[in-house]
Specification:
Length: 329
């Protein structure tokens, strides 16, 4: 069974309600139809019912909520005002947000217990997807920062976990400090364990392996590795490692023979967002890998992003992953 098939089966065992706020996108409506037909999750679409039905998809079993005609809109407005009172948000400002920004409305459905998670980003930028989530849902207790990863499934690949990898941070944290990089490593290990149900083996990536190069960028990864090993000793984390030393056993034997991660890594932690984002897109496009994400970690409820170049199947996959995260929330 493929990775995403196993995720879908897990989602079906405890059905969760996922909000799709971008009802203006045909791909989202087509994905909603597939999600409903496959029984992966209950779906809430935000928008005008007539506009949604114009797409010609069968989404009769989805719940469609138009903020303009919502019976409990005043409750949501008052709740949002209370959440943002320290920022001075007024009733009218909250009303404007909820009526005109469907991501705010979606997050309030989660906050008030009407839904379990949100998937957005086919139209919205990452910033527009995550801003409402961080303002309303906030961070998970005990979490040091919110980060994002892509789950890559590479066909006909013997590396990682039969071609399955977590790439982090490939969607959010631009240039993490050593402390943040260590926290990303721990969160990514936890996410891999939850979703893949295998032991995470975390490689802290660099252009250097175990001191082969000297540079401030290498020093950052070395320091992050030291912090991660001390602070998150429950996980196998090692570095600094070049990519080939991290995933190819033969190269690991010569470059990092004493590492318990080298040659076997399935969680790849990149030194910055540029490297992570470029890396995942290279693998996705050249190796024809399935890439699910950016999947967020560290938010108090599963709120996940999409690449604006996503396919219908990408959306379906991220919804299934979000549902599994919600089961564990």
């Amino acid at each position: 069974m493929s990775f995403i098939s196993s995720i879908k089966e897990r989602a079906k065992k405890n059905i969760k309600t996922i909000v799709l706020p971008e009802s203006m996108d045909l791909r989202v409506i087509q994905a909603a139809e597939k999600i409903i037909n496959e029984g992966i999750a209950e779906v809430i679409l935000i928008g005008n019912k007539d506009d949604i039905n114009k797409f010609g998809c069968n989404v009769e079993k989805a719940t469609i909520i138009d903020p303009m005609n919502c019976d409990y809109i005043d409750e949501l407005i008052n709740s949002l005002v209370e959440i943002r009172k320290s920022k001075g948000l007024t009733f009218d400002e909250a009303k404007n947000l909820l009526l005109n920004d469907y991501m705010y409305f979606a997050c309030m459905l989660v906050k008030t217990g009407r839904a379990d998670g949100v998937v957005s980003g086919s139209c919205n930028s990452t910033a527009n997807t995550l801003r409402p989530a961080l303002q309303i849902i906030k961070t998970k207790p005990g979490t040091e920062l919110v980060s994002a990863f892509f789950l890559l499934v590479v066909p006909n690949c013997k590396y990682g976990d039969n071609g399955t990898f977590v790439f982090a941070d490939a969607g959010l944290e631009q240039n993490p400090t050593p402390e943040k990089l260590a926290a990303i490593a721990a969160s990514s290990a936890e996410s891999f364990k939850l979703l893949v149900e295998k032991e995470p083996l975390v490689a802290m990536l660099s252009h250097s392996t175990m001191g082969s190069a000297k540079h401030a960028d290498v020093d950052k990864v070395v320091q992050a590795t030291m912090i991660a090993k001390e602070k998150y000793s429950q996980y196998k984390i090692d570095g600094e490692l070049q990519l080939d030393a991290a995933i190819i056993p033969e190269i690991a034997k010569s470059k990092a023979p004493n590492s318990e991660v080298a040659g076997k890594a399935n969680v790849l932690v990149f030194p910055d967002l540029d490297a992570g984002n470029i890396g995942y897109k290279l693998v996705q496009r050249l190796a024809k890998a399935d890439a699910y994400g950016p999947i967020c970690q560290g938010i108090a409820a599963p709120i996940n992003d999409l690449s604006r170049g996503c396919s219908v199947d990408d959306i379906v996959g991220v919804v299934a992953i979000t549902a599994v995260q919600a089961q564990n929330n």
